Each structure stands twice: as structure tokens, then as C-alpha cells.
Amino acid sequence: MSDVNFERVCSPEQTALLGDLAKRIWNEHFVPIIGQAQVDYMVEKFQSPPAMRRQMAQEGYQYYFIREGEQVRGYTALRMDDDRLFISKLYVEKPYRGRGLSRKALNFAEGLCREKGFRKLWLTVNRHNERTIAIYERMGFYKAREQAADIGGGFVMDDYIMEKDLD
């Protein structure tokens, strides 16, 4: 595998590229789990360029491209949350899964967490996203609790909140 690095998303052009990437990944991965209607709604509400620009400008989110060499393979979004780091998004395009990119992204997040002196990472994951849950568990995360969040449009996010304590 080529070198993996994380490029902070800042410009409108980067955000447009990120929105296209999010739409591709969400339509490929989540339609079988939550259905096309909810994917369309969530991409527009949370993963569109205007939504991501708002999250970065007003809500403290930091988006990063996951690059393998010069190629973008996925993305992650992080937010400092009091005394812990929230991994809001971590997505890799299908052809590049199983190559350690998610592990490297989680290690990257853990490094940022430690730099801030935080002792905990947390994230949400759909309860039916079994493969992803297993990956997080192998990386030291545990299911802290369940959460059903009404996100509008008649949709609910039915998630586990998973946490990882840092030594």
C-alpha cells in the first residue's frame, strides 16, 4: 500500500469533491441498510457541500480526505467534543476497503485525541452495519449504549454509540 495521509478539507473546490465522494459511498454502502429514500435525505442534510461547509464553519467539524499516495480513497470528519473526540464520519470507497485505510484513519483520530490530552474517542454506527461494528470492536471500541435519533423527514438514525478509552 502507498503512503496514507490525511488532507484537511478547506476550500469550496475540496468541499465539492467531498460531496461527490460522499454521495457515491453512501449510495453504494447504505442503500441496502437504510433504503434509498433515507440515503437521499441524509446525503442532502448531512453530506452535501452546503451541509459540510456549515458543519465546518459553525459546528467545529474538521473534514479530511483519506489519501493513498495522490488518490482520494475516502474521508473522515472529526469534532472536538468537551474532553473527547467525536469521529462523526469515516468512509472508504468500496474498491479500497480491507486495505487498512479505516485503521489508519482511526489511528489518525486517536493521535489527534492524544494531542489534545483527551482520553476517549466516540462515534455512532448504524445497528445493522455489522461489518463496520466488527471493525470498530477489533480496534478497541465497545458499545456504550443505543440511540434512536429523529433526524426529520420521517427518518430515524438507529445507532450504537461506541467508545474507546485511551490509556
Structure description:
- The chain is of the alpha+beta class and 167 residues long.
- The model has no long low-confidence stretch (mean pLDDT 95).
- It contains 6 helices and 7 strands.
- It holds the Pfam family Acetyltransf_1.
Distance between the termini: 29 Å
Corresponding CATH superfamily? Gcn5-related N-acetyltransferase (GNAT)
Instruction: Report the structural category.
Output: alpha+beta
* Text of the CATH class: Alpha Beta
User: How many structural domains are formed by the residues?
Assistant: 1
General shape: globular
* Percent range for β-strand residues: 35-45%
Regions with pLDDT < 50 over 5+ consecutive residues?
A: none
CATH topology title: Aminopeptidase
Mean pLDDT: 95
Number of helices: 6
In the sheet with the most strands, the strands line up as 1-2-3-4-5-7-6
Helical residues, percent = 40-55%
Output the radius of gyration: 15 Å
Order of H and E elements: EHHHHEEEHEHEE
Number of strands: 7
Largest sheet: 7 strands, mixed
CATH architecture: 3-Layer(aba) Sandwich
